Amino acid sequence: MKNSPFSAPGFLVTCALAITPFWPSPAAASTTPPGITLPEIEIVATIKPVHSLVESILGDEGTATLLISGGASPHTFSLKPSHARALARADLVVWVGPDLERFLEEPLENVAANARHLAVSESKGLTKWPARTGGVWHHQHQEDTHDETGQDGAEHDDAHHDEHEETGHQDASDNAHLTTDPHIWLDPINAIAMSREIEAALIQLYPARAEHFAANATHLRTELNTLDAALRRQTNPVKDRPFFVFHDAYQYFERRYNLSPLGAITVTPDLSPGAKRIQDLRDTGENRGHTCVFAEPQFEPRTMQLLAEGRNATLAYLDPLGSQIDAGPGHYVATLTALADSLVTCLQTKSAE
Questions:
Q1: How high is the pLDDT of residue 225?
Q2: What is the structure's pLDDT at 147?
Q3: Which residues of the chain have pLDDT under 50?
Q4: What is the pLDDT of residues 111-131, one digit of tens each?
Q5: What is the spatial distance between Cα 240 and Cα 259, in angstroms, rounded to a whole number?
Q6: Whole-angstrom Cα distance, residue 126 to residue 124?
Q7: Which of 115, 333, 105 shows the shortest CA–CA distance to 220?
Q8: What is the structure's pLDDT at 20?
Q9: Which domains does the chain have, with CATH numbers?
Q10: What is the pLDDT of residue 244?
């Protein structure tokens, strides 16, 4: 019987609890003088975590249009006419960048030509990691390079990315189009850097609302620092326990909290792994003892089931996009909290067996 990421007991409870601790406080009260009509806000954001940061700063001044909703993935997404209309109206389009949303490059130039395009992957102070290949990694713990106080990190030199050295069995085509891992939002300190760029763009476009945006952005950054500290406490007991992931979406989360991934089936979900890669991963799992194997709800878990079956492994789910969590200001914190909950629950359970 096909496993479902949402049939396991407690999934909905986990998501509900994930939202509760850090739900943003009400936005700063609007300071618009009576009788003054401000221009309508027209913003498009691509993925839910980025959309959440935008809406947290907008507060009650407006809403942003979410481009990729539900269980859709930016790796396999196609624009619909309704998306094109939203892009054509936009004053600002906020996306991660071409390494993640390749489908958007041409529409930005042709459909949203009059909008400002903000690629948060180019945010000042962002920590970036080189793209990895799928397959088995040799993990070596490395002290996290972010400032513990929550200050923005600096981009790391390529010479310092050897935390996960590849085995040489991976297909070279895995990351042929990637130089940098685009899943930058899975580090809360990167989200802080991104929030500063979003705040600046909103203030530039809508200067009459500057005070409102600044207050909301300050509150958001406090929430993100609180989240970061909570995630570190939560993941610390399982940081040495091995696991596999479906696709290599979690490097920023792994490095931030010094976790111990063994490998990934693929770098991007649109690439299918070969039989040798699956066997290499299975052999590595056997040598390391019981492990957790994490699929993603947006994709068929058949390959991950093959990796887990017949081995002392548990199939569980991680969702880097928070696809089943409501879009909005609380989404970002809820998504990372739910991700940590799923990871820790599985790894603690396997350790206790």
A1: 99
A2: 42
A3: 1-27, 140-175
A4: 999 999 999 999 999 999 998
A5: 6
A6: 6
A7: 333
A8: 41
A9: 11-25+40-125+187-228 (3.40.50.1980), 135-140+149-180+238-352 (3.40.50.1980)
A10: 86
Joined together, the tokens standing for residue 114 give: 């009059």
